[in-house]
């Protein structure tokens, strides 16, 4: 999009119009605007490997306390890369690529990679985490969803 | 988009076609597909409050080691919410909303909110962080950019 055709988009304001925060995966096949039907200006979109709510907590606190969002929707998706490995395996891959490097070993051992083995269970677990977190506002509406990258189908889990 | 019109999108594969990872803000006014010109399937899109590369490290390691990306582009944007507060102020807001709640105080004190006071400096600092990180592959091409939410203009910083 060129600057000259940018038009009214430039007038959108900072706080999300729908007071909504989306948490979803960084996966290249997901476009929240097109896939999830979220127009620009409506929602904060947090994306990370797997769409982890735990990993998103810093951003959610900012979204709620400073920018007024009051709803969180967590989306996980089929064929997710997070279903394919374990934290121990990935730590091994990183260490094997830098044999004897103590800084690499120390830093990678400090990262929990937050993989999961079932997307429905992962959605439920993330919603429970947010509901139990003392840092998430009590009045928040929290929902959990799956997205099928092969068909585009969206399903509510919780 | 309905399931019946989903078409060839369902055939996109898991690894990003352009071996590219984008790191940008959760801001509601940013749509990486439309604003940054990244088609579905081409790149991992990591988004968090501010577009922090530090916060994205877990996801970047997964993106590089398991899904073959070799380029990272960090985007910060004008009128970002991260320019408007400090970690101490936000910790105060959260604690003031739950007076005497020790769990809230403990957990919020553990979070660095990663605010910044200048978007160009923040882009440079994030790129330097990634270049210095022993967990990021040495051969990675790392660039830093700003996005103007009022005009749509994109500028390369580093």
TrEMBL record, chains A, B:
EC number: 4.2.1.1
GO MF, any single term: carbonate dehydratase activity
Superkingdom, natural source: Eukaryota
Residues given in the record as Zn(2+) binding sites: 25, 27, 77, 80
Keyword Transcription regulation among UniProt keywords: no
Signal peptide region: none
Cofactor: binding comment: Binds 1 zinc ion per subunit.
Catalyzed reaction equations: hydrogencarbonate + H(+) = CO2 + H2O
UniProt entry keywords in alphabetical sequence: Lyase, Metal-binding, Zinc
Pfam family name, one: Pro_CA
Swiss-Prot/TrEMBL cofactor(s): Zn(2+)
NAD in keyword set: no
Main function: Reversible hydration of carbon dioxide.
UniProt record similarity statement: Belongs to the beta-class carbonic anhydrase family.
Protein name: Carbonic anhydrase
Species name: Athelia psychrophila
């Amino acid at each position: 999009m060129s600057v000259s055709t940018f038009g009214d988009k430039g007038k959108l304001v900072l706080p999300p119009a729908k007071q909504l925060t989306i948490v979803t995966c960084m996966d290249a096949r997901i476009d929240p605007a097109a896939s999830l039907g979220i127009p620009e200006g409506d929602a904060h979109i947090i994306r990370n490997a797997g769409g982890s709510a735990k990993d998103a907590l810093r951003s959610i606190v900012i979204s709620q306390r400073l920018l007024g969002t009051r709803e969180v929707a967590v989306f996980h998706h089929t064929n997710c890369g997070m279903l394919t490995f374990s934290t121990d395996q990935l730590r091994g891959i990183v260490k094997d690529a830098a044999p004897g490097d103590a800084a690499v070993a120390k830093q990678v051992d400090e990262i929990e990679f937050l993989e999961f083995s079932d997307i429905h269970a992962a959605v439920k677990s993330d919603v429970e985490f947010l509901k139990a977190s003392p840092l998430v506002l009590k009045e928040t509406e929290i929902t959990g969803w799956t997205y099928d990258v092969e068909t585009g189908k969206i399903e509510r889990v919780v």
